[in-house]
Amino acid sequence: MLLWIIFFSIMGSVGAIAAASLFVILGERIQKKLIPALLSFATGTLLTAAFIGLIPEAIESVEEPHLITPIILGGILFFFFLEKFLIWRNCQNNACEVHAHAPGPLVLIGDAFHNFTDGIVIAAAFLTDFNIGLAASITIIMHEIPQETGDFGILIHNGMSNKKAFLYNILSSSTTIPSAIISYFILETFQTLVPIFLGLSAASFIYIALSDLTPQLHQRTETKEIVKQLILVILGIIIMALILTLGGHNH
Amino acid sequence: MIFWVILFSILGSIGAILVALSFLSIKKNSQQKLVNCLVSFATGTLLAAASLGMIPTAIASSGNQIQLVMSFFLGGILFFFILEKLVIWRHCHQNSCEVTESATGPIILIGDAFHNFVDGIVIAAAFLLDPFVGIIVSISVIAHEIPQEIGDLAILIDKKYSKRKAFILNTLSGLFTIPAAIIGYFILDILTLTIPYVLAISASSFIYIALSDLTPELHKNVGFKYIIRQVTLIILGISIMVLIFFLKSLI
Q1: Do B219 and A234 touch (CB under 8 A)?
Q2: Closest approach of chain A CAs to the CA of B50, in angstroms?
Q3: Residue of A122, B13, B49, B162 with fewest CB within 10 Å of its CB?
Q4: In this predicted complex, what is the ipTM?
């Protein structure tokens, strides 16, 4: 199981960066087409992984919904405050009204923290069940690719060379790997913590999908774009539901 | 029980509109402030009602059909996502807009009627399962209906409706809560088996509103003062919900 955890934490960090740098090389025209598609797809996978995968699994392992849902609520609040804090720090430094462009260092610190969390999610999910681990990992990869492409855009926009942006981004992203390995050993010893981390992981997935991605998706109002988004969100849901239900994990 | 269902559906519809109307008579400046406070408070109550009250109750009363309840929840999120997309699409086709801040009168009223109809069913379903969950749900409905109706009234008046006409039309569309609650109560009382799933879909509407509609709104205010105020009010909203649960455990 540790091998899978290491493999997918590499895919979710270095792999996503590789895909993102490919997007940077391909140029803005292709980026503008593919990134929104990935965002829609990721919205579907994030929601499904959280609601059909992580949350039921967490509740089943403690057999008491009342113990898990407060953790999810706490997690959502935590991410709300975190985003508030980031917006606030960013705006103190830049006296901004809209917070479209964060400064370089903040992007990298935020990314390092985010990827650190991803590592914990991957470890907790694989320790629960292989399918859950697979579902969580694919979800992380899917939403890391547009995320990292965006980070590249901001770093290069702030005056970094392509090479430098790539190096810094790889460094900040690779926090996924040690975090996954450490989490594996900690959670394996303290199995009772696993449902708690599943709940927190679900909270982060829900928050990202609903508070970050959905408002972004709703900004596009052309009919073609709406149809495309719906198809991709539903596709994300179906693929995730298939991963979660097939493969011998029965309840 | 039907008495409480009717009482709270009146408070959640006509009550909220009356409060909203009284808000309109105060100064624009303090109006903005109060609305912002209410939105923060409503975010807290919606999240807490859904995660601490509705989801655990739905799971428990379904006979621990966790996966099924959560599937309905996910379906609900998708439904509200598509619904918002349709509203944005229709609106933008009539007005060829880019930003969707202001919607036209009829759409506001139809949307409001539908929303209030759903509120009524939510109140009925919650009371049928557990009076305490019913109270919690009703408070969240009232808390988020007030800023909602203030916004609706403001848009209608902005669209050259007279104050009186805006109030009458808004009350008419708001009234849908009451028959929905009564009809919902009697139908669900027969179809008891469906209540947990109706409650799961209701919970998804609460989470969707709190995270995809209200949270981005809150993140637009970046001042330190706002952050403290928002965080305090969200926690206040959650605390009141927790307090009600605490009272339940005492009885």
Answers
A1: no
A2: 9
A3: B162
A4: 0.87
